Amino acid sequence: MSDSGPHDFRDHKAHMQWQSEKNEWMKQNKLVPSIPLDMAGGSKASSSSVVMQKALSNPLVPAGMLATTGCLVGMLVSALRRQNSMRTQWFMRGRIFFQGLTVVAMVTGAWVAGNAHAGPSMKPVLGKQNGNNA
Among residues 5, 31, 33, which one has the least CA distance to residue 17? Predict the structure, then answer.
């Protein structure tokens, strides 16, 4: 069996024959592992509880999102009223500031979570480099 199928997909019968041969070959050679039974059912948690859990684990991200949205709405209202262009400019700058803080909070949260879940072999040991004692 070749890795690439027939390049002329107008011949549907030949294409389907190639697909069935490919599927049989993959089943025989066990190239694709089956999904473990404990993962096949999916998550039993509701989406609202997952969102709440994520928000509580890193509260700076939802706060930054709210601040960014507030600045965006304020900028829109201020721009539509066309009364004070300086206020509109402050809302634009505030949106950029809060959006940057939100990204920093997300990256920091991911870094902290990654370090918290790293096993003892993954954590750096002070004074050791390349397996040698310094």
Answer: 5
Evaluate whether 15 touches 5 at the Cβ level (below 8 Å). yes
Terminal Cα distance for the chain, rounded: 54
- Six token digits for residue 2: 């070749």
How confident is the model over 94-129, as pLDDT tens digits? Answer: 999 999 999 999 999 888 887 877 655 555 555 555
| pTM across the whole model | 0.52
Measured CA to CA, the distance from residue 131 to residue 127 in angstroms comes to: 10
Query: What CA–CA distances, in Å, run from 55 to 58, 95, 109?
Result: 6, 20, 11
- The answer to whether 86 and 109 have CB atoms below 8 angstroms apart is no
129 SS3 class: strand
